[in-house]
Specification:
8-stranded mixed β-sheet, globular, alpha/beta, Metallo-beta-lactamase, Chain A, 6 helices
Length: 245
């Protein structure tokens, strides 16, 4: 499986980075995880011309993880897409998105492809794109009183599990899902990246990618980890190396 880091910035707009979006593909239908600002523009590049996204998972309801969806839907409409899109989102985010799209004149009846909304809950399942995924709740919203939920994800291809932290409040929820993982893609805005890398090492994770990078932060070398850049591609095989596309 190949993991494409399409956007690697934090919630503050960055002139050098798009907002959070990760693409998982293995030659078949693709899975998009989050769809921050810039994702449609990135996917319009020739390198992604043959990628067919069947499923979209939105980890939580922050703008830097969902704001790119309308342009993505508009691009698919312009391209004449008719294949359904599965959208998996937590809580009331799915219904909020439907209302938002309707306000933007992209209600389901105006689109040439069906939108299949599913609620994101903790547990393991296979997406419509054919990817085995486990979702688990982070503490990103802990104590804010809203009842909103944020989910980390574990992708489970045959060549080894890869964990995506999404946004965190602490490392505790992440620790419970690192054992046996081959790789970790972890945010660096809300937690200490050095501590995150050390935690990964303690759990035997051999490859760590640092993302969700704050505007103005100069990535510094951390042994055992690589800082993400937009367009980075990670081969999930044990011998694969991250490279820029």
């Amino acid at each position: 499986m190949r993991i494409h880091l399409l956007g690697t910035s934090s919630g503050t707009p960055d002139p050098e980075r798009a907002a959070t979006a990760i693409l998982a593909e293995d030659g078949g239908q693709a899975l998009l995880i989050d769809a921050g600002d810039g994702v449609a523009r990135t996917l319009a590049r020739p390198a992604y011309a043959d990628v067919v996204i069947r499923s979209v998972i939105l980890t939580h309801n922050h703008a830097d993880h969902v704001s790119g969806l309308p342009f993505l839907f508009q691009r698919w409409k312009a391209n004449g897409r008719t294949q359904p899109i599965e959208i998996i989102a937590p809580g009331d985010l799915g219904s909020a998105l439907e209302n938002w799209l309707a306000a933007l004149r992209m209600a389901p009846e105006r689109l040439p492809y069906p939108l299949e909304f599913q609620k994101l809950e903790a547990g393991e399942w296979i997406t419509a794109s054919g990817h085995r995924v486990e979702a688990w709740e982070t503490d990103h919203f802990a104590g804010d009183g809203t009842g909103d939920r944020c989910f980390g994800l574990t992708l489970k291809p045959p060549d080894g599990n890869w964990v995506f932290s999404s946004d965190l409040g602490s490392l505790q929820p992440l620790r419970e899902h690192l054992r046996g993982a081959s790789g970790l893609i972890v945010e660096t805005t809300h937690i200490d990246p050095v501590e995150a890398v050390q935690t990964a090492k303690e759990h035997g994770v051999s490859r760590v990618i640092l993302t969700h990078i704050q505007l103005g932060v100069e990535p510094h070398p951390i042994e055992g980890a690589v800082w993400a850049v937009d367009g980075m591609v990670v081969e999930t095989s044990h011998s694969g190396e991250a490279k820029d596309e």
